[in-house]
Structures are given as C-alpha cells and as structure tokens.
Amino acid sequence: MSTAATVQHKSGPACEHTDVLIVGAGISGVGAAHHLGEKCPDKRYIILETKDSFGGTWRQHTYPGIRSDSDLYTFGYRFKPWTGQPIASAGAILDYMGEAIADDRIDQHIRYRHQVLKASWSGEAQLWFVEAVRNDTGETVRFSCNFLWMCQGYYRHAEGYTPEWAGMSEFKGRIVHPQTWPEDLDYKGKRVIVIGSGATAATLIPNMADDCSHITMLQRSPTYFWTGENRNELADQLRELEVPEEWVHEIVRRSILKQSREVQELSVSDPELVKDELFRVIREYLGEDFDMSHFTPGYRPWQQRLAYVPDADLFRGIRSGKVSVVTDHIDRFTGDGILTKSGELLEADIIITATGFNLSVMGDIAFDVDGEPVDFASTFTYRGIMNSGVPNMSCMFGYLRTSWTMRVDLVCDFVCRLLNKMDDEGLRVCTATLRDQDKGMAVRPWIEEDEFNAGYLKRSMHLLPKQGGHEPWEFCRDYYLEKDSLPAVDLNEDALVYEPAAQAVAATA
Fold first, then answer.
1. Of the residues 182, 224, 295, 339, which has the fewest C-beta atoms closer than 10 A?
2. How far apart are CA 406 and CA 143, in angstroms?
3. What is the pLDDT of the chain when averaged over all its residues?
4. Is residue 301 in some structural domain?
C-alpha cells in the first residue's frame, strides 16, 4: 500500500495524508515502524526525521569512543537478536538499526531533513495537521494524519547543557561540549580537562588518554561505576552449544533483566552492600590506597544510573598515570585553565564540558487542539503514553533504570492494539480524559526526585506532564511490573473517550 494520499482542509493548503505520522527515526521511531508493519499491516505511515539519516542519539554523538551505557541484549529490540558485544559502539548500533530498517523496508517511509515545527488537531476534520520545514531546501511542507506518534527523544540535539562559570571568556584554549563534537578538534599532546563524571566522561576519557599529554576528570560530585569484561558469559556458552540466535537473545535478555532487578532491589534494601561490591571491583584496579571518595556519591546506588565501564578502561587509564580525578567545585575559569574552590589551578589547553543535556518536551514543537495551545506541563500522563485532553496522540518515553528500548516494545504493543480496536469498532478519535473522580487527585511530578535524581530531569521537571495520584494517571517506570500490567489494560476503561467517524455521526443525524 502507498504511504500517503492528499487531503484538503478548509483551514489551510493541501496536505500529504497518512494514517500514522511518526516523528523521529531513532531507536523509538524505527521500533514503532516495525510494530506498525507487523500488527497493523494495512496502516499507511510516514516517519519525519530532522537529520539526514536514522539513528537519533547514535547519529548525533560523534565524540571519541561513543558507546552504549546499556547492554544491547536489552537495549536492542525484542524482535531482532543482538549478536555483538554487550556494550556496543555507536557505529555497531547504527549498523543494527540499519539492518532492522532494511529487514522491514522502513526506509521507503522515512522523510529525512524534515523538521517538525507545528502540530494542530482539528476536531472538525478529526485529523492532525503537521507543518515541517525541509532543512535542505527551506521549503515548508504539510502533512495530515489520523494518529500522531511522537518518537523524537527527550533532549535537544542542537546544543548540550553547559553551566555558566565566571571567566569562561578568558580561557585561551577551546571549550567543547561532547554533544556537538567538532571534527577539527586536535587534542594530541594537549592537556585536557573533562568536566563531569557520568557515562559520557567515563567514555571520553579512556578513549582520549593515550593521545593527550594528560587528561583530568574534574567532578563536582562522583558517580557510581561498575565494570567487567565486555562479553556475556551465558551468551558465549549458548553459542558454543549452537543454540539459535533468537533463543540466545531472549535467554540472555531475561537473564540480564533478572540480575538487574535483583541489584536495583538490593540498592534499596541494602545500599551499603551494593556500594561495597562496587568499590571492591574498583580497588582491584586502583589498589587499596586509592582515595575512594572520588567514587563515592552522596546518594544511594541507582538513584542515578550506574555508569558501566567496559573492560575497566577508565580505571586502567587512572592506574597508568595518564588520567587523574579531581573532586572539587569550580571557582572560575582562567586564561590557563580552571581554578577550583580549594585553590588548585588545573592547567589545560582544551576543556570539555560533559555536563549533560537540555530536555526537549515533545521536540519543542508548537501543539494546539482546535486552536488552543497545548501546555504539556498542565496535562496529566495517561500511563506514560498519552496526555489528557490531547486526541489521537501517543508519546514514547522509555525506562531510566532498565534499558530504554524495553519500554519501546511494550508501548508499541499498546498503541497498535489501540489502533486495531478503533478500526474494528469504527472509531475515529481516542482522547485520554480526566473523569470527575480524577479532578481532585494528588498532583505529582513526572518522576519523583527520590526515585531518580539526574540533573537533566531536575532542571526541567516543571516542563513535563504531571502524574496523578492513582491509575491510569501514573507513569510506571518499573519494567518488571509494566510487562504484565500494560498488556492487560482494558481499552474500554472510562478514562479513554472515543468518538466515531464524523461521517457516521452526520449520517445518523
């Protein structure tokens, strides 16, 4: 079936029409396309992607050593076995996604270099009207769709988050954010400071260390790290037994999820035991005399993600003397480097600010419903998938403790089930709607700080949708609960309000 048709609406010019419009060709958008093709084969769909190719995060980030911080048995799709190393490079992930696209011929549905600017819902037409600009030509293009599926990711690709420090303009060298890594950056033989202690810093530093004269990880507060060989022993054993790759993928996936759940639960019930085990492994590389305060955060394990260091490369760099760790606050930048609050001058030729990113709510797109602008911070989330008062739209937000993609598959199952129900029953519109009993419920943030306190979320929590005090107005962030609860959701529950096609209503009248 062709991907699109053309419709004319009295409120504007002709639009290219499709049944489902997916925004974003990253890990979520490609997953959504696969599930649509598998479960809703008669649905026409188009994917709009801002960049000139697929991949999202893995296309945007090009800094040295860019790799996943989740294992690919769980970060990979349920429907496509992963056969490489558990912690994979961006290039390997892009190859994997490219194979998924080729397997399902998804490429014929993707429109690259299309940046979505505006999305307007018309209750009269029962359609979304979407306006985009082509980055290659500057042309404005318009689409209409029955259902809008937001898979655009959750951070702003154009710029990373860099705090403002005194004296930054005085620094004689170069200041770089990893999210927008310059192709011409020459760090060979240079003194480098990396500000930050998360997964990005832990990736950059060992991959730059051999070429720098010295590299310093300057952190305001430490991160919990864990390490091990970049291999999965169970997967290796199964392959030696010539078990089919589909089975290897599923068995290892379940094994990793079980182990991860046990660690997460232990992090709450006995955090000191988890900390001791994490520190024990680090000391094996750095020795008993190393100052472990550099790896001792002020929060318990798993309040932020545990940053994985494959093959202990960061610790090997520290042991070699090429890498040092400084835990201190920045007083100011100087012409020659950074002066810390304790009075130490860290000299540098290049400063890299691995300080996180800026959250983007719904891709920074201007939304309106029948002419009324949508403020998503004033909406309630319906099971972390839809928003109250916004018809025929779902959004993709993955897990933060479990691999993001584990939720992609579950949400795709839900959305496809919803679309098929609407088709089977002649329904045209579905809106998550607050009921009378919901209007006085407690209002909670998208994510509670004591559950997950990453800086990028804390800075932007006020922009995100709210949670209510009871189902279905909650975002379940626990895969181990949601894998059973989400498939069991009754699509006839009264918080989902349906409308038949307008033509049917008119004919009845």
1. 182
2. 30
3. 92
4. yes
How many helices (H) does the chain have, and how many strands (E)? Answer: 13, 26
Q: Which tokens go with 341?
A: 């609050």
Domain finish residue from 286, 320, 355: 355
In terms of Cα–Cα distance, which of 134, 100, 129 is closest to 25?
Answer: 100
pLDDT digits (tens, 9 = 90+) for 49-75: 999 999 999 999 999 999 998 899 999
Model pLDDT, residue 358: 86
Q: What count of other Cβ atoms lies within 10 Å of the Cβ of residue 445?
A: 16
pLDDT for the residue 165? 97
Exposed e or buried b for every residue in 210-236, given b needs 16+ CB within 10 A?
eebebbbbbbeebbbbebeebebeebe
Q: For residue 444, what are its two tokens?
A: 């909670």
What is the CATH number for 25? 3.50.50.60
Residues 132 and 218 in one domain: no
Nearest-5° angle of CA 23, CA 357, CA 329?
A: 175
pLDDT at 360 over 90: no
Give the span between the Cα atoms of 422 and 231, in whole angstroms. 45
Query: How many Å apart are CA 80 and CA 250, to the nearest integer?
Result: 10
Residue 322: which domain range? 175-355
In a domain, 169, yes or no: no
Distance of alpha carbon 338 from alpha carbon 442, whole angstroms: 46
The pLDDT tens digits for 222-260 are 989 989 899 999 999 999 999 999 999 999 999 999 998
Tally the residues of the chain: 509
Residue 12, domain member (yes or no): yes
Dihedral of the alpha carbons of 465, 453, 365, 129, in degrees to the nearest 10:
-50
CB 308 within 8 A of CB 226: yes
User: What does the H/E/C string look like for 111-130?
Assistant: ECCEEEEEEEEECCCCEEEE
Same domain? 190 vs 334: yes
pLDDT confidence of residue 2: 39
Interval 135-145: pLDDT, tens:
999 999 999 99
For residue 380, report the phi and psi dihedrals to the nearest 5 degrees: -105, 140
Q: How many domains does the chain have?
A: 2
Residue that is last in its domain, among 355, 378, 403: 355
Find residue 21's DSSP bridge partners. 46, 148
Q: Are residues 151 and 89 in the same domain?
A: yes
Residues 316 and 369 in one domain: no
**Domain assignment of residue 457, yes or no:** yes
Whether 96 has a pLDDT exceeding 90, the answer reads yes
At how many degrees (to 10) do helices 233-240 and 245-269 cross? 160
